[in-house]
UniProtKB/TrEMBL annotation:
Name of this protein: Oligopeptidase B
Domain Peptidase S9 prolyl oligopeptidase catalytic: 481-696
One Gene Ontology biological process: proteolysis
Source taxon at top rank: Bacteria
Record carries keyword Ribosomal protein: no
Record-stated family: Belongs to the peptidase S9A family.
GO molecular function: serine-type endopeptidase activity
Keywords of the record: Hydrolase, Protease, Serine protease
Sequence ranges assigned to domain Peptidase S9A N-terminal in this UniProt record: 8-414
Keyword Electron transport: no
Length: 698
């Protein structure tokens, strides 16, 4: 390999750890020292090397970025949603990185959401928050909270300027536009107002970045006077806070991976003590929603795929069934409106919505036309309403916002995300593309679904290049989604496939359980089975197949690289959890203790230790011919620390030096990568250019 920029070689400093009689030598543990100048120098050298090795793709990156920009309506306005006497919406402006949060008063007789021509501001709008103004002078910007008080007077919002997801909370007077002196540093996601908007509840984290405390702040007082309302001392659990849609109760949600408890405070009595709706029981998960005289309870007590019940809101006690457990139909959420309940569910690998009229009448499911799609409720703040708003998309249908009338059962399309003409000047037409559902057979005989999208008429003779994407953890489902950036791949003849592997939630709770703890390897072998199936079925060939995943999906990428390096021409691992065993052995790190119910506790259990060691990518690098690997990470990532991919790439170079390995570190971002939309597009263009190069389509 010839290049003017030398291949970075990380120094080796042996560091030993011993657990359960097993001693491991880690030569690259020194890279965990984030503030060490040598660490920064090494990451900088890796960035320089990556830039040099991809310099020939500079023109293609610019071309892909321009295609994303050209297809996107840059000056745009979301469908306004009504809350009280206002329509709330977000605008974007061409040339600006961040959204502008706005509202406009509801006018006499106005029942339909107001529309805007070409994304222009609505007449009479009030700008609540302009992200572009807040972000001035910062390389990174993210909003944590954006919460308007019930009376519409105050806005609680929080900002992060580094990417570490530690926010500063502020309150804005929307009547005057002035900021209150109230300011709380070091907060987490989640806020809730009292009924009279005199009190604001918020969350903070402990030293391991576990959300563990809910605080009460009285407007007009110093944050030093704030009171801890609830503190969770069990390190397996984390907390959240929210106001019910009815605005009657403040909910404190307490969760571990397999157990939960909900406490309530009457919003009209914010100084009251939180009361438990049902005490926690190991292995029982439940969430609640307030509806009139009752709390609706979605739970898994004797119901693997969850059931719906209710209990008295005045004196919570026995759970009265509303929807019995139905194996194979996973109930995921319940949303309460004055006269209707809406249950979000999934069955046969697809999402759905079920309506339950309160005053009588049979429950029914809302129908959708495509064989593959994703649907869910979207922006429904009003409790007393006769319609709901939902968001719908598929692999070929752009994000669409509908209003559904709960009485007439009529659905009105309010807006479909515009897709402007591409480089050839042609308007986007879904008919130019095809979506398919296929099934792979796993090693143990389990059928694993695969979703695919490609240009219409793409040959199925093994000649087409393909990208296969996977995640497979935390019961997160990779439901079909539309992507403007993906069109640049499809139009170059690339097939895009999503492997719905175990560990995700696509086929219910058992699908998740079969891909966690001591069954985690199913996630990896399922993905390899999907890759092999795509080749066997003629969709692609192994030398035309690139795998991609992020976070826990990055762990997947590292694992399949070790298991089946011959199955792929390239692998993209973004913010990858590739040093999983080392991290899960350290309870001082963010998320570790709360993750033990997902991965197991290797500190206490030698079986878990041995099992994790047998699959964690960093521990299992071998002297084999690996496919080309691109790892992308962020220096300020709190969820998956930057040094995991840095160590992984260093070991790959040492053990299998013939391979082509690149590491790109965002030096001023967090887990989600760059924060501005144009910066995000450039990052996606960078990755897609590398993919196209590997697939011979650059």
């Amino acid at each position: 390999m010839t290049t003017e920029t030398p291949v970075p070689t990380a120094k080796r400093v042996p560091s030993e750890r011993t657990h359960h009689g097993d001693t491991v030598v880690d030569e690259y543990a020194w890279l965990t020292a984030k503030d060490d100048p040598e660490t920064i120098a090494h990451l900088t050298a890796e960035n320089a090397y990556t830039e040099a090795r991809t310099a020939h793709l500079e023109g293609l990156r610019a071309e892909l970025f321009e295609e994303i920009r050209r297809r996107t309506q840059e000056t745009d306005l979301s469908v306004p949603g009504r809350k009280g006497g206002y329509w709330y919406y977000t605008r974007t402006v061409e040339g600006q990185q961040y959204g502008v949060q706005c509202r406009r008063s509801v006018r006499d007789g106005e029942t339909e959401p107001p529309v805007s021509v070409d994304g222009a501001p609505l007449d009479g709008e009030e700008v609540l928050l302009d992200g572009n103004v807040l972000a001035e002078g910062h390389d990174f910007f993210s909003l944590g909270a954006f919460d308007v008080s019930p009376d519409g007077r105050w806005l609680a919002y929080s900002t992060d300027f580094s990417g570490d997801e530690r926010f500063t909370l502020r309150v804005k007077d929307l009547a005057t536009g002035e900021l209150l002196p109230d300011e709380v540093p070091g907060t987490f996601y989640g806020t809730a107002w009292s009924a009279d908007a005199s009190v604001l509840f918020y969350v903070t984290v402990d030293e391991t970045w576990r959300p563990n405390r809910v605080w009460r702040h009285t407007l007009g007082t110093a944050s030093t006077e704030d009171v801890v309302v609830y503190q969770e001392d069990d390190e397996r659990f984390w907390v959240g806070v929210e106001l019910t849609r009815s605005e009657r109760f403040v909910l404190i949600d307490v969760h571990s991976k397999i157990t939960s408890e909900v406490l309530v405070i009457p919003a009209g009595n914010p100084t009251g003590a939180p009361a438990s709706v049902a005490p926690r029981r190991q292995g029982v998960e439940y969430t609640i929603e307030h509806h009139g005289h009752r709390f609706l309870i979605l739970h898994n007590d004797g119901a693997e795929d969850f059931a719906l019940a209710w209990t008295s809101a005045d004196a919570p006690g026995d759970w009265v069934p509303l929807i019995e457990h139905s194996p194979g139909t996973r109930l995921e959420a319940v949303d309460a409106f004055a006269d209707h309940l809406v249950v979000s569910l999934r069955t046969n690998g697809l999402t759905g919505l079920r309506v339950l009229p309160v005053g009588g009448g049979d429950a029914y499911d809302i129908d959708f036309p495509e064989p593959l799609y994703s649907v869910g409720l979207h922006d429904n703040p009003e409790y007393r309403t006769g319609q709901i708003r939902l968001r719908y998309a598929s692999l070929v249908t752009p994000d669409s916002v509908y209003d559904y009338d709960l009485v007439t059962r009529q659905m009105v399309l309010r807006r479909q995300k515009p897709v402007k003409p591409g480089p050839d000047g042609r308007a986007y037409d879904p008919a130019d593309y095809e979506q398919h559902r296929d099934w792979a057979l796993a090693d143990d005989g389990t059928r694993v679904p695969i979703s695919l999208v490609c240009r219409a008429g793409t040959p199925k003779d093994g000649s087409a290049p393909c990208v296969i994407y996977g995640y497979g953890s935390y019961e997160a489902s990779m439901d079909p989604w539309f992507s403007i950036a993906r069109l640049s791949l499809l139009d170059r003849g690339v097939i895009f496939a999503v492997a719905h592997i175990r560990g995700g939630g696509e086929l219910g709770r058992s699908w998740y359980d079969q891909g966690k703890l001591l069954a985690k390897k199913n996630t990896f072998t399922d993905f390899v089975a999907c890759a092999r199936h795509l080749v066997k079925a003629g969709w692609t060939a192994s030398d035309r197949l690139v795998a991609r995943g992020a976070s826990a999906g990055g762990l997947l990428m590292g694992a399949v690289a070790n298991i089946a390096p011959d199955a792929f021409a390239g692998i993209v691992a973004q913010v990858p959890f590739v040093d999983a065993l080392t991290s899960i052995l350290d309870p001082s790190l963010p998320l570790t203790v709360t993750e033990w119910e997902e991965w197991g506790n290797p500190l206490a259990d030698p079986e878990v230790y041995a099992y994790m060691k047998s699959y964690t990518p960093y521990e299992n690098v071998r002297a084999v011919d690996y496919p080309a690997i691109l790892a992308v990470t962020s220096l300020n990532d709190t969820r998956v620390l930057y040094h995991e991919p840095a160590k992984w790439i260093a070991r790959l170079r040492a053990v299998a030096p013939q391979g082509d390995y690149l590491l790109k570190t965002e030096m001023g971002a967090g887990h989600g990568g760059p924060s501005g939309r144009y910066d995000s597009w450039r990052e996606e263009a960078f990755v897609n250019a590398w993919i196209l190069d590997r697939l011979g389509r650059a």
